[in-house]
Write a structure and sequence with these properties.
By secondary structure, the protein is an alpha+beta fold. The protein has three helices and nine strands; from the N terminus they run βαβββαβββαββ. It starts with a strand and ends in a 5-residue tail after the last strand.
Amino acid sequence: MRDLVDIQILNSNLSIDSCYEFVIDASCGAVALFVGTIRNHNNGKKVKYLDFESYRPMALKEMGNIAEECKNKFSVLKISLHHKEGRADILSKAVIIAVSTVHRKDSFEACAFIINQLKKRVPIWKKEFLMDGSYWVNARP
């Protein structure tokens, strides 16, 4: 599975090119990419930057489980899933998902499945730093 799945949690900037190059394959007619970026507002408040923390061993394991489920469900050949850890400034990439499949529909559905499962299951938390303070997003109702 290791040559078909690339899962990383990185303290450095995420690379779309790196994810794309990993998944591209001559047997696939579709590559879909999802890129989650840091926006400058949330709930009517101005955001300065975010900070991501993870329980890395469990996060990587669960990301691998999601990738395996996705491969079986959507006939995905290759998956690259990278998530940012540490400070993330406005417009920077927080998460990149790249998948290659024979047909485009599976690629789109696979990306949606991965990001939805990642948000539900993976122990990665974000703290928003606002003009008037900060808070852990996942800790608020």
